[in-house]
Structure formats: structure tokens, C-alpha cells
Amino acid sequence: MTAQDLFRTGPLTFGVRRYRPSDREAVVGLWKSRFGCTDELAADWLEEATSDYLTACFVASPAQHGRVLGFGITTVTNEETTDGWLADGYYGKVDLPEIDLEQRTAVMHIGVTRPECEGEGVATELWKHRLAYARENDAAQAIGTSWHREDHVDSSVLFEKFGFEPAKRVKNYYDGDRDDCPDCDGQCTCDATVYWREL
Fold first, then answer.
1. Which of 90, 109, 115, 158 has the least CB density, counted as fewest CB within 10 Å?
2. Any idea what the Cα angle at residue 72 is, between residues 70 and 128, rounded to 5°?
3. Tell me, what's the pLDDT at 113?
């Protein structure tokens, strides 16, 4: 991390860099604290998300030490895997006619910022790096999901800040997929909005 890589917003100075194995415990901890899942589930998802496809996990941390302030993961599908991610798998239960399944697509996965760092520009800088990564890898479009939770700020603000449009709001989005929601006392019944934009 060099001086020109640092961002100062208010009292916080931090840089954005690629994920390192030494970040694993902190990233899994943030993941677990936000989504209420087990350590094992978060660790398995992180391993999968950072080893398959064209995937980058970006981490925000202060220059003087490696404390993780936030992270965000983006995957770029290729022409062979777009259909599997968007039609058959990841977004398979959502009808999204806007999506061109023949295009490379950036999937904006999970992003988490420490609660005490929210409003300090951490998520914004992470999103800039994630979208730059998508463009560098020839993604023609990007898609992501904002999980709506009662009494929590969700990522809708960031999607809209970066030019995404709401493609569809889905009731009980995680029905059958998430049985450890921290807001629903078990099986998740939260809604979500799928966002999309051209790049």
C-alpha cells in the first residue's frame, strides 16, 4: 500500500488492497457478524468465492496495521458460466429479462463494513475497486442483491449510488437457502432486491 493508495475520509485513513490469507479470520468474523451464519459456512463460502472463476476479494485496512475495516467480493463470469450463475444457479428463481446471458457478468457478492466505520467511505472505495476489477475483466454488465433487513442499512444505497437499477424485488428471497437469519430467528423470510447495470 503506497501513499497514493490511501483514502482519508474524516478521521479515518485507509487503503484498499486484495485479500490475503492472513485476512481470513477477520473476513470470516465480519461475514458471520453481519449474516449470522456459522464460522464454517462463512469460511467455506470465502474459500469458494476466492478460488473459483475470475474472483477478487478487496479489503480495506489502515496503512499502519492490517486490521480489516471492510471487504467486498466480485466475480466475473465468462460466457460459459454466465448462464449457470444467472439462469440455473445463483439467480435462477428470479426472472430477469434485462440480463443478457451471453455477456460476461460481474456478480457483486457480499460486502461488509465494520459498524463503527460505516459512513467513513470504506464501502464506497471498496465498490470503486470492485467495479474497476469488473471492467478490467471485460464484464459487460453487473448484478447484485440487496438483502432487506429490518432496522439495518442495506446495500441499496450503494447500488443506486453506482448507477445500478432495481430489476426486481423478491419476497422471501432466501426461502429454503438460509436457515440461520439473525433477523428471522431461523429460516430467512426477508425480501431482497436484485440490482443490475451495464458497464
1. 115
2. 100
3. 93
User: pLDDT digit string (tens) for 108-143?
Assistant: 988 999 988 888 899 999 999 999 999 999 999 999
Is residue 124 within 8 Å of residue 69, measured between CB atoms? no
CA angle (158, 33, 105) in 5-degree steps: 40
Q: Tell me: the pLDDT tens digits for 155-172?
A: 889 999 999 999 888 776
Q: Find out whether 74 and 56 touch, Cβ atoms under 8 Å.
A: yes
Q: Mark out the alpha helices in the chain (DSSP H runs).
A: 24-35, 39-49, 82-83, 122-136, 156-161
3-state SS assignment for residue 56:
strand
Asked whether the CA dihedral 7, 9, 10, 12 is positive or negative, the reply is negative
Residues ≥6 apart with Cβ < 8 Å to 138: 76, 104
C-alpha cell at 99: 440480463
pTM of the model: 0.84
